[in-house]
Amino acid sequence: MSRRSSWTEALQLAWPATLSLLLQAGYRVNDQYWIGDLGADAQAAMGVTTFLLIFNFALIVIFQSGTLARVAFHTGAETLTEREALYRSTLWRGLAWFAVIAGLGWTWSPLATGMLGAQGAVAELSVEYLRPLYLGLPLMALKPFTDGVFLGLGNTLTPMRLALLSVGLNFGLNSVMIYGGYGIPAMGIAGAAWATVASRGLAGVLGLILIARKHGLHPTRASAAAQALPAAQVRRDFWRVVRIGLPVCFTNMAYALSFIAVLKTSVEPLGRDVQAGLGVAFNGIEAISYCALMGPAIACSSLVGRRLGARDGPGAREAVRACLSMSLLISGAFSLAFWLLPDVLASAYTDEIGVIREASLYLWVAAWSQTATAADCVLQQALAGAGRTFGMSLTTIAGLAIRVPLAFALAHSLDFGSEGIWWAFNLSNWIKLAAIILVFRRTRFWDLDPPAPPPTQTKRDASGPSSDRPPSVPARPSRP
To answer: Largest Cα–Cα distance in the chain?
Structure first.
């Protein structure tokens, strides 16, 4: 494919993916907004649960990332029977896994919130918020799972529309379920959780229905060809999903753990203004930049997976270049905004001078690594789309681990204060990028084996790509 066609397809995939990511942040924004009248303890409980919810997503992303890569591969290879069998087996095994997480989360919520420092009323409200989310987790997990399927199929518009519907419904349900109305009793902070379960669960179920209607992938009804596939082959394909998804899971866990460690060891001793400034800059401003950078990255994972399935190695590499160029252009715009307008951006969230000063300092420093974050995201997603996640995960986890001692050393040992923490984030981002470039160049997933002779009877992918070899499929038979 030409570079222009790669740019066009990347753009068509990237903008809905970006909007979907921004909408995903809307659930937390909705909850944070509507529980305001419940008091400071409820607000603190929301903060305590943030990183536990990141852990939840890490356990769900095993199936989202792996399914995206394998569905994209089968779509590009046109091995549609294998794609159907993979979809059904992964869906039902995934639901069983989500049920296990739900049971463990319900049981361990009090212990987990206590380990994060919640006490008294804050601890009680944290558990009150978490337990409905764990009860409804199998239903809520359908949304990211179906998003992965749609992305593997090259469809980013449908997940965006479902996210828009879900976040809008969540906004309306929150007020009713938290404070009561229309015959529904007031449930307080637990009402916010139930509103999330209902809105995200509905989007997940609708996703299953649309996948069945638009793409012929039914959760309960298998075609005769899919039923005829050997069970061992279907199991092998499912375990490829797990092998691709597990490193991504560990990476998300490492992100949460490293951030908690920096907060505890380096940020907390510097006081309230630094904590609040980090919250404003990181959650309120840089999160928008990250969503914009991740849109082209997600497009890259879908393009790479489908083009490798179609044995178009040069096209896969061209897709990486197009998505990387797009993400770097976006990062340049955000870098300029963070350099030139940090005070203006920070003051949109608060009027406290100390908080604005710390948030502005964070943004000015973060401007120096927006391009590194953009390139890192695209290369990671390219490797994920190719099913090559192990090396990517190791380098990312190592880069995140470096942040903890580096932040403490710069902030406290060398007495640079909060600026030292923000520069530690920057330096670790550049270190991660250097490592991921080495992994990417070493992997060379676009160098495919020579085509095999055409099969005589049927075109099936009996094995698919392993997690440590470039994918290779039989050449397409000629069509009458």
So the answer is: 74
Specify whether the CB–CB gap between 202 and 169 falls below 8 A.
yes
Q: What span, in angstroms and rounded, lies between the C-alpha atoms of 337 and 325? A: 19
Nearest-angstrom CA–CA distance, 445 and 91: 27
Half-sphere exposure of 32 (CA within 13 A, CB side): 14
State the residue for tokens 């015959």.
183
Query: What's the rounded Cα separation, in Å, for the pair 288 and 283?
Result: 8
Q: How many CB atoms lie within 10 A of CB 465?
A: 25
Condensed to tens digits (0 to 9), the pLDDT of residues 19-50 reads 777 777 667 767 766 776 776 677 667 766 77
In a 10 Å sphere around its CB, with 0-12 CB exposed, 13-18 middle and 19+ buried, how is residue 478 labelled?
exposed
120 dihedral zone (left: phi>0; alpha: psi -120 to 50; beta): left
Where are the alpha helices (H) located in 180-312, listed in sequence order?
189-215, 224-228, 231-262, 272-278, 287-309
Cβ contact 245:62 at 8 Å: yes
- Kindly list the distances between the CA atom of residue 259 and the CA atoms of 279, 400, 405, in Å, as whole numbers in the listed order: 12, 8, 12
147 vs 227: CA distance, rounded Å: 25
How far does CA 192 lie from the centroid of its chain?
A: 22
Sign of CA dihedral 126, 131, 133, 138: positive
Task: Write down the domain spans for the chain.
Answer: 3-443
Closest to 344 (Cα-Cα) out of 329, 364, 328, 330: 364
**Interacting residues of 145 by C-beta distance below 8 A, sequence separation 6+:** 60, 63, 64, 67, 91, 94, 204, 207
Q: Can you spell out the DSSP letters for 80-145?
A: HHHHHHHHHHHHHHHHHHHHHHHHHHHHHHHHHHHHTT--HHHHHHHHHHHHHHHHTHHHHTHHHH
Residue with more model confidence, 291 or 449:
291
Whole-number pLDDT of residue 142: 92
What confidence tens digit (pLDDT) does each residue in 381-429 have?
899 888 888 888 888 899 899 999 999 999 999 989 889 999 999 999 9
